Backbone:
């Protein structure tokens, strides 16, 4: 019996929107691995790791459409047109490989609209989003009973250096964990606005650089120290910023084993931690 995927591919080209996860190839889904193994061409973002790209056979064509701040090699409309062009060329299986999950700040809908307008079939394969991968790697929860009853993913990126237009009052909920994607440059504004709207200056913050990868680095700090500590740390991008009481779980009386994580600052002091032994600040 044919699967839905097989039926669609029998009818013509299919663009597979595949989540590459946060970087570690071991976090790819089985379906993502199969899509990469069977691809005719892979159109990938800048944040897709080399380790993930190596999962595909060497003969598979790879096209980088990565965008870096101020250095856009492909506009979004260019990428849309490229996917349509490849399908019309007769490529049967086109993998559009996106960092994290295609539907979490991945602009998947813009590409889907272009594909549907051109009559081209598509399928989506979810991926582990950066928040999940980085939290697991750092051994911190995103939610925890008594500390965080909700979780919000927020983009910290804005156009042309405009101020962030966010629901600051809603975000400044002490029972919410906030995860800022692409928020490095906006760290001073994030800190100031959240404190202005009532979030405690001592709220725990975890910044993760190159999450789940061998070069992963972490900065544990507090909300009022975030701009200075992040600037001084010099962490390479990409950087994920997680804010909330659940992030300081090990340093709270709610910790089930009563221990403090050595990497979590308890007196407002920042701590840098490289991927390796949990809780070892370096």
Residues:
């Amino acid at each position: 019996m044919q699967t839905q995927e097989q039926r669609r591919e029998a009818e013509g080209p299919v663009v597979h929107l595949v989540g590459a996860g946060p970087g570690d190839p071991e976090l790819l889904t089985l379906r993502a691995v199969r899509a990469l193994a069977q691809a005719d061409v892979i159109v990938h973002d800048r944040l897709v790791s080399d380790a993930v790209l190596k999962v595909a056979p060497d003969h598979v064509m790879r096209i980088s459409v990565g965008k870096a701040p101020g250095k856009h090699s492909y506009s979004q409309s260019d990428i849309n047109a490229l996917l349509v062009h490849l399908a019309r060329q007769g490529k049967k299986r086109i993998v559009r490989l996106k960092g994290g999950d295609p539907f979490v700040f991945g602009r998947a809908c813009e590409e889907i609209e272009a594909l549907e307008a051109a009559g081209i079939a598509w399928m989506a394969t979810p991926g582990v989003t950066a928040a999940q991968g980085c939290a697991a790697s750092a051994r911190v929860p995103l939610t925890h009973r008594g500390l965080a009853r909700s979780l919000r993913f927020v983009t910290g990126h804005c156009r042309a250096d405009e101020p962030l237009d966010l629901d600051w009052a809603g975000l400044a909920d002490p029972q919410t964990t906030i995860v800022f994607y692409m928020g490095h440059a906006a760290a001073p504004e994030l800190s100031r606005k959240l404190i202005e709207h009532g979030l405690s200056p001592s709220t725990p913050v975890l910044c993760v650089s190159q999450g789940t990868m061998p070069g992963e680095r972490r900065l544990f700090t507090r909300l009022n120290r975030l701009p200075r500590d992040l600037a001084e740390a010099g962490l390479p991008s990409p950087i994920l910023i997680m804010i909330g009481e659940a992030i300081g779980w090990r340093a709270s009386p709610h910790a089930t084993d009563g221990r403090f994580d050595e990497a979590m600052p308890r007196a407002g002091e920042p701590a840098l931690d490289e991927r390796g032994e949990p809780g070892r600040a370096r």
In short: The chain is about 25% helix and 20% strand. The first strand starts at residue 14 and ends at 19.
